[in-house]
Structure formats: structure tokens, C-alpha cells
Design brief:
Layout lengths: L7 H12 L6 H4 L5 H7 L5 E6 L7 E4 L23 H8 L1 E7 L26 E9 L6 E5 L13 H4 L4 E5 L20 H15 L4 E6 L3 H10 L4 E7 L12 H4 L6 H5 L3 H10 L8 H13 L2 H29 L6 E7 L10 H8 L2 E5 L6 H4 L1 H17 L1
Parallel strand pairs: 1-3, 5-6, 5-7, 7-8, 8-9, 9-10
Antiparallel strand pairs: 1-2, 3-4, 4-6
Length: 402
């Protein structure tokens, strides 16, 4: 259980001890043993409203403080029981939901992959179209810049970039399906988290939010997905900016910090741990020192619902299986003479996951601009958000003025 003011590590440690105990029961895993404490601490759920993308649609609500009975059924934390303000509440209030990409599957109720029990509403696919959480800033009449977070992360990683871009552009940062506040359907119940699905899902989202040309900024391991989308829609892009993308054969293997989420059973367990899924994944790859207020935002999806962990487990398996082929294809696309999109690579030199070897040569041979950032790591926008915002703004403005 995550209680305001107490570090989640206390809960995680307590849970892992219970998990391996011979007397551990399903009721513990599904929050049952926390019911009395939850009733005592949670007097009423705190319901936050998110802006609508269409004024004719009903208002969307997101239960932040929900009792176990209203939760997802499978959550190691059972939800956050506190009436006090939380940094993630403020971030959520800034955003809105956009509906894009049709839901697949048979329409059956999703069940957890461990016990096969039906999960709550937060782990079910939307009725017809997925909900994407995004934060938008700037003048809607200006050129649109879409900021795409890496794996694993959230739109929140661009919080320092948005204000810089909003001065001259319409900037949009969104959560991928399975991350942050966006829909997180269980695998095989509407979305399987394959990289091919992410390509088509991105197309749906971009078409929904931006009918005209856009500039795309993408960080990390989702870069091959975005490049594949871009290769099919070059006419749609003004330019493409890649932040520490996997460009070489050495980059095609996930680091152990991420690949562990794809392991059988162990992956399901570790992906439910907010300290492994957010804190460690974001801080082990560079100099980024996470503040507690920011950590609370990144941990929130994992503390509120088990669906975030299961989505992380699914995308980790897809990445482990498909990343090599996508990286190779991305390299071919970026070096092909038919590639007409103005491309810039920004590289944080202190990346502990992706080496700098061959990056300079590849950019030079493909005639793509390379910008080195000596003080940044893998999550460039976290380490130097305002600086990268200025770089993005400058790159786009030069392109637009031509």
C-alpha cells in the first residue's frame, strides 16, 4: 500500500516477503488483506476530471484515490489512500484525453496473466477507441511539435521542454498506450503491445491531433517505431529529431534493467514494483537524479493499478523479440537516398545504456545533423530539458523558414 509521506519501498519489501511465504494467498496479492486499512484511511475517492478533446463527449474521470473495491483487482499497492495533494494530480489536471486507434480483440473481459481472474475497469480496453493522455501547450494555430517519450517513461519527461516550445509552436506530449494515464489494456484483450501495433497506433494518434504537417521528437527505444511510421508518411513530417536512439547493432539488445521485465514470472513480479519500473529504469541509464516529487508522478501508474506492470511486461517481451529487426530497418531507412525528412540526432554523452561508438560515423555518412550533449544521459529531456527545448525550437525554425 502506498500512503502519502511513506516511501513505497516499505510496501514493496513487505509484499515480496509475503509473496514468497508458503502462507501467501490470492487475497493478499489482490489487496484483500488491506481492505480494513483501506476503509479506515480512505474516506472518499478523489475524482479528477481531465479535459475533453471533443466538447460533445462526456467528461472523463480518473479515480486517483480509490478503495480496493474500486481498483483494478490486481495491484500490489491497492491504490493510494490519501486526501492530500500529489504532484501527479497537478500534472493530470494539465492534460486531456484524445481518442485514437480502434480497439481490437474479441471484446472479452481481460484477466490477469497469473491467476486468470477478471480485472477491473482500468485494465480493460475502451469500448471502441483507445484513450490517449496528452498535455498540450502553445498556440493551436502554430506549427505542431509532437513529443514522444521513450521506453519506459511518460509524457511527464517533457515537462521542462513544453514551456520552451510553447512560445513559438503548438507542443503536444502524450503517453503511449500502456504508459502513464493512457489506456492500458491487457495483452490479448484489445492490444498486444507489438511494435507493429505501435506503428499503426501512432499513425492514428498523429492523424487525430494534427491534420497538417508536424515535427516529431522521439527519445530512446521507441525511435525505431517512429522512424518506421515516418518512412510511410514522409509528406506528413516537417522534420524528425531523435534523442539517443538505438542506431547500431550493439544498441539492439535491451539493457538488463529493462530486459528483466520480459523474464517468465520474474518479469510479472518485477514489473509491479514501482521502484524498479520507474525509479531504477529512469536513473540507472545516466546522471539523472530524480526528485521525490517527480518520482511520485512516475510511480503513480504502478501504485494505482496492476495494469501498468502487465503492460510493461508485455512491451518488454515485444522489444526483446523485435527490437533488433526494427533497429536494422531504421538504419536502412535513415541511410536510404529516398529518405527526404530533415533528421537531427541529439546525443547525451553520458548514456550508460547506448554507446556512442559508430553514432558519429552513421550520422556523417547519412548526412544527418548530430548535436552532442556532454552533460546528458539516455533520458536527454530529463537531464537538460530547457536546453533540448531550445535546440528543438532552433532546428524546427530553420526548417520552417527555408
Amino acid at each position: 500500500m502506498a500512503i502519502q509521506g511513506k516511501p513505497p519501498s516499505l510496501f514493496c519489501h513487505q509484499f515480496q516477503c509475503s509473496l514468497y511465504s508458503p502462507t501467501a494467498s490470492k487475497s493478499l496479492l489482490f489487496g484483500g488483506s488491506f481492505q480494513s486499512r483501506a476503509q479506515h484511511l480512505c474516506r472518499k475517492p478523489l475524482r479528477l476530471s481531465c479535459s475533453r478533446s471533443n466538447a460533445n463527449e462526456p467528461q472523463d474521470d480518473y479515480l486517483i484515490d480509490a478503495p480496493v473495491s474500486a481498483g483494478d483487482g490486481f495491484s500490489f499497492s491497492g491504490g493510494k489512500y490519501s486526501d492530500e495533494a500529489n504532484p501527479s494530480d497537478e500534472w493530470f489536471k494539465q492534460g486531456k484525453y484524445v481518442k485514437a486507434h480502434p480497439v481490437g480483440g474479441t471484446g472479452e473481459k481481460a484477466k490477469d496473466p497469473i491467476f486468470g481472474l477478471t480485472m477491473g475497469a482500468g485494465s480493460q480496453a475502451s469500448g471502441d477507441v483507445f484513450r490517449w493522455f496528452c498535455v498540450e501547450s502553445g498556440n493551436a494555430d502554430n506549427h505542431t511539435v509532437i513529443l514522444i517519450h521513450g521506453f519506459p517513461s511518460q509524457a511527464y519527461s517533457y515537462r521542462k521542454v513544453l514551456p520552451v516550445l510553447s512560445k513559438n509552436y503548438r507542443a503536444i506530449a502524450f503517453d503511449w498506450l500502456g504508459f502513464g494515464f493512457s489506456d492500458k489494456p491487457q495483452p490479448r484483450y484489445g492490444f498486444d503491445y507489438s511494435l507493429g501495433e505501435y506503428v499503426s497506433a501512432l499513425e492514428s494518434f498523429v492523424n487525430e491531433v494534427a491534420p497538417n504537417k508536424v515535427s516529431l521528437v522521439v527519445q530512446g527505444y521507441f525511435s525505431p517505431v517512429v522512424v518506421k511510421y515516418a518512412s510511410k508518411h514522409q509528406e506528413k513530417l516537417n522534420d524528425l529529431i531523435l534523442l539517443n536512439p538505438p542506431l547500431t547493432a550493439k544498441h539492439a539488445n535491451l539493457p538488463s534493467t529493462l530486459s528483466i521485465f520480459s523474464n517468465f514470472l520474474l518479469g510479472e513480479i518485477f514489473s509491479q514494483d514501482p521502484l524498479r519500473a520507474s525509479d531504477k529504469a529512469l536513473t540507472s541509464c545516466g546522471p539523472y537524479a530524480m526528485k521525490e516529487d517527480d518520482a511520485m508522478v512516475y510511480r503513480r501508474p504502478y501504485l494505482t493499478s496492476g495494469s501498468s506492470g502487465f503492460a510493461l511486461n508485455a512491451i518488454s517481451r515485444a522489444m526483446k523479440k523485435e527490437l533488433k529487426a526494427y533497429v536494422e530497418e531504421m538504419k536502412v531507412i535513415l541511410m536510404d537516398k529516398s529518405w527526404k525528412v530533415q533528421t537531427t540526432v541529439c546525443w547525451g554523452q553520458r548514456d550508460r545504456w547506448l554507446s556512442y561508438d559508430q553514432v558519429e560515423d552513421l550520422c556523417e555518412s547519412s548526412n544527418h545533423k548530430l548535436i552532442d550533449l556532454p552533460m546528458a544521459g539516455h533520458h536527454v529531456q530529463e537531464d537538460c530539458g530547457e536546453e533540448i527545448g531550445g535546440i528543438i525550437s532552433g532546428v524546427i525554425s530553420r526548417r520552417i523558414l527555408r
